[in-house]
Each structure stands twice: as structure tokens, then as C-alpha cells.
Amino acid sequence: MTDVKENVPGKDPGDAESRPCKPESSGPTREDKSSLRDHPSRLRNTVNDVSKLSSEIGMNRDFRVEEKVLPPGSLEGRIRETMHDAFWEHLKERLSATPPDFNCALELLKEIKEILLSLLLPRQNRLRSEIEEALDMDLLKQEAEHGSLNVPHLSKYILNMMTLLCAPVRDEAVQKLENISDPVRLLRGIFQVLSLMKMDMVNYTIQSLQPQLQEHSIQFERAKFQDLLNKQPSLLDHTTRWLTRAATELSAPLPSGPGPDAADASSSACSSPSEAASSPEPLSPTMVLSQGFLNLLLWDPEDDEFPETLLTDRARLQELEAQLRQLTILASVLLVSSSFSGSVLFGSPQFVDKLKRVTKALLEEFKSRPEEEALLTVSEQVAQEIHQSLKNMGLAALSSDNTGSLIGQLQDVARKENCVRSVIDQRIHLFLKCCLVLGVQRSLLDLPGGLTLIEAELAELGQKFVSLTHHNQQVFGPYYTEILKGLLPPAQVLETEVASL
Using an 8 Å Cβ cutoff, are 23 and 109 in contact? Predict the structure, then answer.
């Protein structure tokens, strides 16, 4: 998610004494612009950043700009707070001087006016004229020169205008400002809330323009890739091998055994996540692409033949892979724990939620370390939680043998070959495959056993995966169609054009 820095002017108190007070602007200076022209690599990086942002907005319907919140006690936070305090203290001294010095206040009022005007919709001409008249900078400058600038009165007008323009979520913040009598504290609060209102307007604009932004993102990425393909005709070699491998896997004979592997392999066309197709269906572009996208979640990091059409999404796919791995461990821990705890304890939503929070927190804490270390801590903490909860509910506590067995089985989940983990992993992959074919909501209606306790987490993972793959197909669909023409019978390719998925 993109971060937005708090739009509160910062100023060095030493500089403030020697020159007019003007809030810092985040826009590029003349030097910055010439620097971009003189350094093509910087320009390319800027274009890439814009491309990534455009792609993120295009594939994520819930994309939102959020306020940047610095960690408590961070160096950046302390520096920012010190600078802001110095600036507002300097403003207070200027307004308290005899006669008052309104230069800083005028600069602030000018910026507030610009922000208010930027929050208006095109049709709000009456409000635009009213703001222009009430905050006429030439008139306010004349009042300042005569020492008659009424800052509290103007702040009151600004608050009334903010009440009209703010989103409902900001009503409470604006109302709190009305109780501030100190003019400097009030101006500081006004700037803080206005920065949030600007962020709200950005999010509103993004949501309003989502279809246009999405279409622009698709056309932009496709044109950019086509330019590269024109210069390097072999650019689709890895993509071709990726789809060929997926088609080969789907064409392979199905395992005849009744185990989970057979169930997973036979799910090339899923009618529901918990049941596989009774007989294999002819390959279609949708099936091949779905298998190909699932294979990306199992990609060997040492394999450099990553599909060229997905290189820009590789970091996102790696994040999804890490999230999938964590959900596999979480569901495995819950499934093993439930076999020792009984239906009464696991019938309590509060207990299950607590166990999930504890496990998630520990897995997050140990994410950069071997899974064996994480599961060692998880197993001990989970056993302790179960023991204490059984005791609190007046039920028989786990015996020392059962406790040892529980801890041992939980620690064994760290092995990828662990039978519980293996089954859960296959079922989550089956769920994701069905999400690609049926959609997330339909796939959630009939979850396989062991996954119901992580339904909310699966819905989030499935939505991210579907959004990423859907956007990718919209961008590169024509290329996939051409490749699949050489892998599938013509009738099957024509039946489901990838570009229309």
C-alpha cells in the first residue's frame, strides 16, 4: 500500500527567523526536474514506479492510500515531531509579538485555501467562489499589513467549510477542533485533519476512476511488453515452457489410488472444492492457465526460467506463497490441536480465535528463522493454552503423556512431508484452483475438512490470487492464446479465448 506522509509543514527554527515562513512542498524542484532529465536511470525508475502503482490499482479493487504511521519512538518520528513543534512554536511567537507578524499565518492560510479548493468537485462552483472570496489573499495581506488580520475568525470559517466537505469518517475529528481555543493549536489541528481529507479525496478519485485506471493499466503494460518483445523475439520462451509444463501435467494419467493425491490430481475441473471431477475433461485454456498459475506458488527459487509475462508480479506471488505456507501451518496446528482438545473446547469461537492469534503472532515473529524453531515455540505455547483453557472450563486437563504427544505432533508439522501438513497443503491448493474456475465466494461454500477454521484467511488469500491472475490474463491474454494454439486442439482454443477470461 502506498504511504502518505502527514501534510504538516515542517521548518527549521533557525531558518524561520531569517526568511518568510512557507510550508515545505512535496513537489519536485527545478533541480529535481533537471536531475531526472540528466539521469535516464532515474527516469526509468520513476516510470517503473508509476507502472507498478498503475498495476496495483488495476488489479486491486480495494486499493487505498493510507496515512503513514511511524513506529513509536522511531528516529524519523522523533525528528519530525521536533521539527513540527519548532515550527508551530515559532508561529506562536510571531503572532504574540507586538505588533503581530502575520507572514507565517498568511502562508498557512494560502495553503489551506489551496487544499480546500482541491477538495471541491467540478460542479461545486458556488463553494469555489465563496472560498475565493473569504480567503482572498490580496485582501488578507492588506489586513495583515494594518495589523487587523483576524486569525481566529478565519479559522472558524475554515472549520465550517471542512464540516461541509469532509467525509463522514472525519466528522468527529473536525468537531474536536471546534473545542480548541488556542489559534496556533487550532491551525495545527486543521492541517492534520486536512491532510486526512486530502487522502480521502485521493481514494474517492481512485475508486471513481477504477475502470478507466484498470483499462489504462492493461493497455500500458501490454504496450510496454510488446516494445520489449519487438526488440527481443525470444522474450516469450520461458512463458511457453511454463504453459507447456502445465498442459503436460494435466494430460498425464491420473493416479488410481484413493488417497488425497488422487483427489487433487483429478480436480482439473472442480465443481466444488470438496469434490473432484468424476472423469477427466478435455483440456481448455482456462484449465491450463489455472494449473500454470498454481505452479507459480510452488516455484523453485533457483529456477531462473520464470515466465516473462509474470516477472513484474513475482514479488507479489512470493508474498502469496509465504501467506499460503503460513496458512498451511496454521490450519495444521489447529487440526492437530483439535484432536487433543475435544469438541467442547474447539466449539468455543473465543478459544479458536485466541489460538489463531497466538499461532499467527509466533509464526510472524519467527518468519525469518527456520520453521523448526517457530514450531518449537508454537507447540509449547499451544499446549499451555489448551491446558489452561481446559482447566478454566472445569474439564479434565491433558495428561503428561498427551501433552508430550501434542507437542511432538505440532513440532513435526515443520516437516513438509508431515501427513497432516501435506493434506492441508493439497486442500488449500485445490481451493485456490477452484477460486480461479468458480470464483472465491462459490469456492467458500463447500470447504474441505480442516479448512473451515481459516475461512476468513482463505478468502483473503483467494481474492488476492484471483485478482493478480485475472489482471495478468487481461494484459497478456493475446500472447497466451497464441501459445496455447500450439498446445491444444484448435477447437478447444477457440472455445475459450484467453483474452476474454
Answer: no
